[in-house]
Every structure is written in C-alpha cells, then in structure tokens.
User: Fold these one by one.
Assistant:
Number 1:
Amino acid sequence: MNSSTDASAVALASFGGAKLSYVDGVWVNESVRGRDLKYYVFDWDDNVLCMPTRIHMERLDEHGNWVPHVCTTSTFSVIRKDTAHYRFPMGRREMAFVEFQDERTPLGGGCFIADLDRALDDIAEGRRLPPPSFNVFRKTLVEGRLFAIVTARGHRAETLRAGVERFIERVLTPVEREIMLINLRGYSYCFDGVQTFPSQTAVLRRYLSLNRYHAITSPAFDARLVYEAPEVRTQEDRKRFAIHDFIEHLVDILDRTGMDALRLPISIGFSDDDPHNVEAVREYIERVLVRRFPTVKFCVYDTSDGKGAHKMMISGQLELSLE
C-alpha cells in the first residue's frame, strides 16, 4: 500500500458509524445530511495565526515629540483607542498599514503568503504555540463547514482565499485532507445532487468558493460600502457589515438546497482577539441579528488573552465549543 492508500484507509476508519457511499469511484459521507448547522466567522491575526506583519504608528514620547513606533497586531488591538499617545503617520491609516496590502511598497506589503508561511514555521518549529482559534479553524476545514474570514487587513478576497489554501496544504495531515474531501463530497451529493466528482482539486475549489473572505479595509470592500452602506465607517461597523453579509449568504445557500433557513436551528460562532470588536459584535447580535435571524444561535469568543480558554458571551440557547 502507498501512503495515499494508507491515508484513505485511516480516514475511512475514522468515520465510525457514519453512512459512507462509494460514488463515481470515490467515498462520500451521506451522514452530513443529519449534521447540525454550525458555522464560524474568524478574525485572522492573533486568532487563527500570529502573523509577523507590522503596523507603523507614531507614539508621543516623554518630550512631547511624535516618534515612529512599529508594533504587532496584538499590541495595536490594545493601543488603537489611545489617540492621546498613538496616531497614524500624518493621520493616514493607509500609511500605518502598508504591510497589510497586496501592493508592494518600500515599507513592505504584498507578502501575505510569505508572512503566513513564517507564522506556520514558528508553530511547526516550536517557537510559538498555535493561537486560540488555530485548531478550531483546522477542525472547521476538516469537517467541511462553511466559514467567513473577517479581518481588518486590506487584501483582495483572492489573497485571503489563497492563504486558506496554503493553510490546508501545510497544516492538514494527509488523513485530515482525505476526511475533508469525503465530507465535502457528502455535502455536494446530499444537498446539491452531485453524482460525479472530477478531481480532488475541483471539490476543494468549489468548497472554498462557497466561503466568504472579507478584508474590511480593502479597496474592494470600500467600493462595496459606497453602494450598499455609505454610513459604515469604523472598523467595528465594517466587521458588523461583513458578519451580516455572511449570515445572509448562509441563508441563501440553505434556501437553495430546499431548506427554509429561517426556520432551522443554526449556530454561528464569531471569534476575535480585539476586545473592541468583540464588544461591538456582541452588542450588534443582541440589538439586530437575533431579531433579524430569530432561529440562529450566536456565540462570541474573546480570544484577546491569547490562551485556549476563551471568555464566551452568548446570545441564544446553544453554546458552540471552541475546543
């Protein structure tokens, strides 16, 4: 037996009592038909991965002078509301976040995949523990569940999607990738009536295309807000808009499969390491989302302490596990 056959055998054994069918020369998991409808919204930096990307700020020193101050995303989440001591260079946010764009500049940028690889190297080589939602994201992928990436970065959606592909390539084991494919084929077979599966690559691409990738300071996101929500300006409001968009997207997908999404028990978990975002989303859920989507159970996870045990604020009756 070769390694691919071994991985397939181990993957099949992991399904236990699940109903597996052999369709078009591959295995599909028909038991996904009875799975709970559980989805996730992930912030990226310091939540899924601790990226080495830097923010270029200015700090008021002890002499009353504004001096350059380079910081990490985790530090920025703490100081970003302290406008008395920290500011964007020349008052321009884009100058602070040049490394978070797809375009290259003298200060950086255009290095999302390279930064992702460095972050994964740090974990693989034991220099850093996985961030709080690293393994949750990994499990989400293996189970083939839909998700959204909602980050304050300024990349194109295609860049974030490429990052997810790299995560799958580098983090998931051969067995986990095989389990993911069996689950993904199961969803297509059970809910979309798919009977043929041309390649593993096609199955994965279809899955990735169903998810949402929102970089809320990107030019594309800015352009969308101009037409759909010109009143949305702050980072917190942008994240709210992106989350609402993902929920509407989920409802549309479920409705297309013949389900009445607004009548089904659905659970959605949101995780973020920035306490300001966490509070803003929690308030938005209680004020808007639970009324718009009364059957959806929302969970918000504060991962700002960087530890595996998360503070959890819940709206609804169903708790999601982040373990």
Number 2:
Amino acid sequence: MSPPLTLTALPYTRDPLALFARLRRRHGAVLLDSGRPAATGRYDIIASDPLATLEVDNQGRAYIERHGDALAAPPTGLDDAFAAQAWLLEQLPVPSTPSELPFCGGLMGYWGYDVGRQRQGVLSHKPAATRLPAARLGLYDWAIILDHECLEAWLAATPRRAGQVIQWLEQAAPASAPFQLTAPFRAEMSQAKYAERFARVQRYIRAGDCYQINLAQRLTARYQGDEWDAYCRLRRATPTPFAGFMAWDDKAVMSLSPERFLQVSEGRVETRPIKGTRRRGDTPDTDHVQAQTLLQSAKDRAENVMIVDLLRNDLGRVCRPHSVRVPTLCGLESYPNVHHLVSVVQGELDASCSPLSLLEAAFPGGSITGAPKIRAMQIIDELEPCQRSLYCGSLGYVDVRGRMDTSIAIRTVLVDSGSLHVWGGGGLVADSSPADEYAETLDKIRHLVRALE
C-alpha cells in the first residue's frame, strides 16, 4: 500500500490551463476544470501518471491495468465495474491529516451513459457511437488542487510523487499543432427524421409509457491538429464550472458541462438537475426578457419538477430516511450562452452506503433520461440511431476519504480516430413543440460547433 499523502503549498495561479499544459502529454493526464475566472467553480484538479487504469467495455466488464509494481495484483475474477472501483480505492491509505481540499487521492475519469444503461438492465441493439471504453478511470496517488476562493494552490502527494511532480512542472509545455476541421459537422438526423421520432415519443406519452423523454441527436466532423488546442478554444467560448479534459492514444474527452450530477462531502449529498433552457439575448433588455420567459414557462417548470421527483427517489434509495429535501426548485442560472432552470436536491448518505453506492443507484442522471427512468432509457435506445458513449454519463472523482463530485456530461465533445462527436438533446413532454425542441438540440451546442469551426 502507498504511503499517505502530504500537502505542499505551490504558487497560486488562476489559470489551470497553463499548469496542465506542462503535464498534458503524460500518461493518464486529467484536468477537472472549474472554468475560472468566467465561471463560478471553486476548485481545479490536475493529475497524471495513475497507479492503475480501469476500463469498462461495452458489455460492462472491468479491466485493471497496473502501471509499475506499486499496487498488488487485483484478485482473480474482479470484473464487475463498481466492485473493481471499490477495490482500487481500498489500495490507497486515507490521509491522516484533515483537509478541506476536495481530492487527496482516489479515482478520476469518466463513467459513460452506457455503464448506467447496463446496470439498469436496459439492453441495446444499436451500434456503438465511438471506440471509447464505456468508462475510463485512473487511480491517482497525487493531485494539484487550485482553490480559487482562498487563492491557494496545493500539491497532495506521497513524498516520492511530490519530487517527481515538481520536476515535471519545471519542464516547458509541449508545443501544440493548430486545430482545424477538415470536414464540417454533419447531423445524424435531419429535422424531418427528428420530427418522426418526436411523434413516436408523443405516442408513448399519450399511452402512459412515460412522462418525459430526453431525445438527443449527434453531430460528427473530421479534424486535424491538437485536441488540447481545440479544448482551449471551447473553454474560451463557453467557460463552465464542470469542465474537463483527458486524452490518450487517438481518443480524447473535452467536456464543458454546466451541470453537477452528484456531490458527496462529509456524508452530505447534492444533485443539481438542469431542465429548461433559453438562449441569452443580444442586449440587456432582450436577455432579461429571455430569462423571465424561462422563469414563467409552465412547460419548462413542469419538466424540471418531474426530474426533481425522479432524483428524490434515486437519492432516497441510499440516503437516510426523511433526509432528502429540495432547497431550490427551478432557480435561474445564467451562463455565457444560455439561461437554465436549475433545482437543488440534497440528502444525507446512509451510514451503510458509500459514494460509489450512490453513483451506482442513481446512474445515469435522471435529467438526461426522462421519467420513469428505465422505460425512458428503453425508448431512448429505440429512437436514437446509436449508443450514447460518454454523452450524458459523468466526469469527476471519488476521493479515498469518501468525497465525490461528478458532472452530467452534456456539452461534451468526444474524439475518436480523427473524428469529433457532439450531442445535443432536450426533454420532451406532452406539450412540447417539434420545431422548438429540434432547435433547442442545436442551440445547446451551437457555441461549441462555432468555436471548433
């Protein structure tokens, strides 16, 4: 077992990109990015060179690859995705020094939507959207954490790691090849095909199969150059508090998500579902009108409340009885490109459950499936042309001390062998309009597409 992590103060910087750029080509490099200074997140987390990497295939089987001999070999037959994650966390010691920092060693990476689909028993007969694994997580025994409220930077690392990281940071950032598209983005569905699927959703709603379905479409383009250059362009166009970047081989994840999925801190659980979206106005007056129109929309409010009820049920499966509450219902949050209605659902984790138990119980997030969840996922698989891969899954971390923070992987670009894939979706209810909903799928990702073009 690795020795405990210690904390070393580093010079503070408000720019995680310059810091991460020096490490980005190291094995397993990952950036969880709060979007500062434009967005409102508090912490950036940077790490690389994990002790082990866990990948989950499209059948739900887990594979652990150790890097070096710092870890014992995993037990034979450990191929269950969540059991394998729990075993990896057990290989790191819990730091003995108390710290308010969110991450002091543990798992970081992503969990794809299809991991949740498999866990919920929803089979798919659609082709895979990408060759990315269904989940990819590293076990990290060090991290750099930037705290933008206290204006501090910390290196949490074992003594051996600390010296290595300091040396890595002294090296110049590698040059990046300019990014450019070599073929424009093309939508997987025409507006007419979307309308056909919309009509089928409405028939399911009228028949009582579901109350809401999140229907998405994918756009794909070809590119050349450096994915890191692309991420920097995306971040300038749309800074968000739950962004992230990771790249390996010919694959990468570039996420600019505004939505938290699940956070656990000292046993307190929080999820912040987004339902209801309007584009920002071009002037202060039109922007105010857009915001007020969203706040007064009965349709958007009903859509949000449905998902709040679903998430209250998901949290209730692993939280203490009577601890689940909704301190904010349909509050307005504004981002550089859109206004959103955001609710806050909180609870207290039951003493018999872990953050991984919570993630497994609630995954994937109800805000991107619909209600009821399992029937909604079955309809999504029937109507969408391919599987979702990471889209509508999560990026984030699970800390060895029992803390966790994850996003909903919307506004996310996936890189696979020279192709870019980005999805836009929205929740359909009984009084939805096909033209409006189709436009919303494009509005949500328009700024990403323009930044890459």
Number 3:
Amino acid sequence: MSAIFDLHCDTLTGLMAPGRGPDTLNDPRSAFALCRLPAGRHWAQCCAVFVPDGLPEEEALPFFRRHEENFRRQGARFAGRAQICRTAGEAEAAWSRDRAALFLTVENGAVLGRDLGRAAELARAGVVMVTLTWNGENAIGSGSGTEHGLSAFGREAAAELLRQGMVLDVSHLNDRGFWELMEETDAPVAASHSNARALCPHPRNLTDSQAREIARRGGLVGLNYYAPFLRPGGGTAGREDVYRHAAHFLELGLEDCLALGSDFDGADLPPALDSCEKVPPLGEFLAGQLGRELAEKILWKNALEFFRKNLPRG
C-alpha cells in the first residue's frame, strides 16, 4: 500500500485568510486540498481547528463549534473524495473506497477555557488529538514563547482529555510544561509538528531528551516542513533538511515513532515542501536515503499504528 499520513495542517481555519471561502479543504489555493492530492496514494490528514492565542475564554468554544460545523459540512460536500474518521480502521476503510481519511484535531487547549466539561464535547465532536497550548499561555499552561509550566487546571485537563479518549499533543508546549506533563501521565503523547532542536535550535523543536521520552512511551513525532524549524540562519530549506532531522531522530531510537507533520496552510513553507503534491517526491527522497521500508514507516505506517493503539475503537 502506498500512503501518506500527515499529523497536522491548518487548512480548516485557512478561511480566516483574506479572500478565502469556506471550502478550504478542496480549495486549489490550499497547500492541502482534496483536489490536489497526488494520484495513486492513499492519504490521511489531521485537520486542526486552530484557536488563536488571546481569544477571550467565552469565545473559544463557539469558535471551535463554528469550525467543527464547517468540517462536517465539507466532509458531507466532498464525500466522494474524503471520509471523516475517528479510528485507524475507519481510515483504512476510507482508503479501500479511494477516499482520503480526515481526522479532526484542535490546536490550542485554550478551547477548554477553565471548564473540564468541554473535553467531553470535543470527544463527542470526534476530536482525536489536542495540542495543549499554542505559543502563548492559556489556562492549561505555557507555550514555547512563555516561561511558566503546567497549571493545576492543566494537570486536571490532561487527565480528562485522556479519559475522553484523545491524544495529548505536546508541540508548542515549553520545556518546563513538557516535563511537568511527563510527570503527570505515562500515556503515549504526540508532538504532531516538531523537529530536532539539536539541528535547529528553535524552542518549538524537541530536545534529544524529549524525543527519547516520547519514544520510550510509544509516542509519535511529526516532522514539520517550516524552514525556521528545519535549519538555523535562514536559507531555502528542502527535502534534504527533512531527511537530516529524520536521520537524527532515528539515531535517538525513533524508528517506530517518526511521522509527518507538515504544518500545511499554517506556515510559509519552502518551495520543495509547500503542497501535498510535493510529499511523494519527499517520500522517494527519504526512501533513497533510508530504504523504502523505513521511509514507509515515516510516511504512514507509524502514524496509522499509533492511532490504532491509542484511539478508542467505538
């Protein structure tokens, strides 16, 4: 089977950009677009509702509801091309019908406000993964641009999100918050769109010790295509940079934990990586460097297996 499984895009909330309409998931201007998916590849895409920092707490849940409703509407409108999924089995069923598998996620746990009951609503809406923070600070804890750690509410929120069957996403958490979360739970976690800080010293990237900890507990790390996370000092990033980060993570023992996390439609990406059509050439490049079996793990097998193990079946 030839497939792609991408852990993060912001295409769903791309309609907030000037001049964009609501059908972002099939808009040829989108980096991820159903009409642009490469032929001959099964595709699974995690579509995030990105909740901006600074949104008043009382507005965060209505904001999520609007975008979740739009996700459902687009899923119905483009049902001939895609299927909304909640499990690995549903994704495989979509693939068997030549449809892309779409998963709903949330970027920024600010959606919870200070109300643990909202976690149940996210679960009912089909959310499979929640990035606990964005770059700033919310009621859960501190993002990569702030200095505090996990709050008391954040500890309760993490436990409740897990109880409701969702995966905790540590991309955007700062270092202190990351390690405080590791003390709170032994659950596998994902870093849906983060690279290696050893190669690119950006606070959004993972330290070696963080990557090893994610691997130790059977988690998942998605390689991000954003140039400032791929290489320090600017310059045009490309497939070689993604390979360098992949190779570094593999040296740390992440063979079964490494995946893709493009950040499509959430960041300005380099020309070699700026759309879904560019992913098969990336896969071929990785196969040439790492061998096809290992490349297939990164492209889709690890993510599918992680979802199989860590999402509720019913």
